């Protein structure tokens, strides 16, 4: 089947968005440190896409402030510190905590059952050290809570903030798998009891905890001498 112009444009846009998400996650997880060179050819090779959507992705990240474009050097990672990451997670904690509180208020038995199933799958993934599955179950656990809250505007605001929060590579953060399992248990308990304030505090604490783990690792990597 021949693709029409709209299909080609949509596919190209999706490839560019996938590439920007990939690089954004690398930066926020500390895999690409400030000052590091980011070449579209290397990104294209890593994702098995052409350099064109990869270059478009890097331009988007430059506008967002993740990258800088320097003469004769190309794209480099913009300055970023552990404290910047802590600030982002503090903002995330405020919105995520409110959504968790609203979810607890309206949680149905079916909602709780879905969260419990996801949590059990997350624990199983953590126990067998299947970090890819762990990240996926973590994402679905949080998405389910946000969906339960039924607040599209707050969800939109959280989505904007979460562009600056990695959705991948958490497994490489020391202490994160255990923290996720423990923190989610507390969140789930509050939602099961329809304890809105408890859910708010538990979720906010969870996000602050995750932010501190990521920021500490970022500071550690930034301080390490170059090989």
Task: List its traits.
227 residues, mainly alpha, Four Helix Bundle (Hemerythrin (Met), subunit A), 2 domains, 2 strands
How would you describe this structure to a colleague?
The chain has 227 residues and is mainly alpha-helical. The chain has 2 domains: 5-77, Arc Repressor Mutant, subunit A (Orthogonal Bundle), CATH 1.10.10; 82-223, Four Helix Bundle (Hemerythrin (Met), subunit A), CATH 1.20.120.530. It has helices at residues 5-28, 40-47, 51-64, 82-106, 109-127, 131-149, 152-162, 176-192, 196-223; strands spanning 67-70, 74-77. A two-stranded antiparallel ribbon has the order 1-2. α4 packs antiparallel against α9. The protein is elongated. It starts with a helix and ends with a helix. 36% of the residues are buried. The model has no long low-confidence stretch (mean pLDDT 88). GO terms for molecular function: DNA binding; DNA-binding transcription factor activity.
By secondary-structure content and strand pairing, the structural class works out as mainly alpha
Integer average pLDDT: 88
- Order of helix and strand elements from N to C terminus: HHHEEHHHHHH
* Name of the CATH architecture of the largest domain: Up-down Bundle
Shape: elongated
Number of strands: 2
Computed over alpha carbons, the radius of gyration is: 19 Å
Question: Could you please say which CATH topology of the largest domain applies here?
Answer: Four Helix Bundle (Hemerythrin (Met), subunit A)
Helix content: over 70%
- Under CATH, the homologous superfamily of the largest domain reads GntR ligand-binding domain-like
Report the portion of residues in β strands. Answer: under 5%
Q: How does the major sheet shape up?
A: 2 strands, antiparallel
Poorly predicted segments: none
Q: Strands of the largest sheet, in order across it? A: 1-2
Put simply, the count of helices is: 9
- The tally of structural domains comes to 2
The N- to C-terminal Cα distance equals 50 Å
Question: In CATH's first tier, which class of the largest domain applies?
Answer: Mainly Alpha
